[in-house]
Amino acid sequence: MSSQIIPVEPFDYVVFGGTGDLAERKLLPALYHRQLAGQLTEPTRIIGASRTAMTNEEYRNYTLAALKEHLKAEELEETEVANFLARIHYVSVDAKSDQGWDDLKKLLDTGKDIVRAFYLAVSPSIFGDIADKIRDHKLITKSTRIVVEKPIGRDLASAQALNDTIGKVFKEEQIFRIDHYLGKETVQNLMALRFANALYEPLWNSAHIDHVQITVAESVGLEGRVTYYDKAGALRDMVQNHILQLLCLVAMEAPSSLDAEAVRDEKLKVLRSLKPITDGNVEKQTVRGQYRAGASAGGPVNGYQDELGAASDTETFVAIKAEINNWRWAGVPFYLRTGKRLATRMSEIVIAFKPIPHSIFGESAGRIEANKLVIRLQPDEGVKQWLMIKDPGPGGMRLRHVSLDMSFAQAFDVRNPDAYERLLMDVIRSNQTLFMRRDEVEAAWNWVDPILKGWEEIGQKAQGYTSGTWGPSQAIALIERDGRTWHEND
Length: 490
Ligand code: BG6
Known about the structure:
The chain is α/β, with parallel strands linked by helices. Helix content is about 35%, strand content about 20%. It starts with 10 loop residues before the first strand and ends in a 10-residue tail after the last helix.
């Protein structure tokens, strides 16, 4: 089955940070893909904006180089590339002064009332400056939206301050807070799996589920993001946003519809039901780790502090035993873990069902494993349902644990689009379902803040782990203490 492309209204996307890493690696390639899919309509334009002085021509060359670098050669169709480049414009603006803003206004004010999206792919420290300039230069029309990238704060107070700053200029329905995990196909599939099938939902609770595991493992290290990462660490960088969003999609009640408010209301309830982890239980329920030298992707790699060139206790790994205090989930631990320089790049959610209450098979049948549903988010996206079956053939009743295995790549002959493609178009359609509402972001910080404070108060250090492994041994102990194990990569 081929995918269905619904063209969107014409728009002007103004990308602040137009010469930055995100624009180059993700935004420009994603927008080109939408061009290739035939989704962009006339007179759509993409306007790069940053302090660098550049002509339109130079920015088109920059864009072309970005496409060549980040897309496959066969994706670059000559006519489509030319059509795409014709949409590209550039304005040099300074967030901190009036320089360039009149030029931007002149470019935008074409007299046509088309969707206008401002994408802030810049440091949050200048979100407020840009928002003020947009307002002062009267760039806000009735179909204007603003898109902001994480990090939205480094704790609850700074997140509130940032939300206030943007909120002074834009209404909540105009603000699109990106969490790119929500744009991943397999993450959206979680909702399909849960709410488009009658099979799982009756079992989706503490009566039938023993525990849940969420792993987001990366094999990469710092990737040059030294300044940001060392101040953030894995809890702020991955758990506060991506992992908690995944947890919400697994744990939330069925929303009444896919409407943005309906979905976000349910996610918010989950965030607010998370049992606090504070200095009293932080040592028992969390593990901090930091990678040391080892091997990754086949070659030797340096440790975190060597890469950083300084001593640091920032965590590059975190494992947490989270609990949700509500009727559905009381007593069902959610084991979360994420880290850099782990054994492999792999994200998955494991729903571990309870064992059968009584076995009618004798000892010769072998061990009866509990059922598991494994949702593989990346790579090799797919779903595996682990079941017990009879080993075929004579010789009595021997049981085997096997998986019903569906690989999306094999099942569907379509390209798996990058998360940003979907999200960038949802902004134009003004569909907020896959974006975070202010109260969600703040509720997530409200749970994360006491963990950060707890670590500080008890002086919980980052445990070293060898690059290329599954993190510190304490993370294995975290789950094994409860008589469970991390799901093995199968
Ligand atoms: C980003 C984090 O939000 O997500 C990075 O800041 C991380 O540290 C990245 O590498 C992971 O995203 P993905 O899509 O590669 O899993």
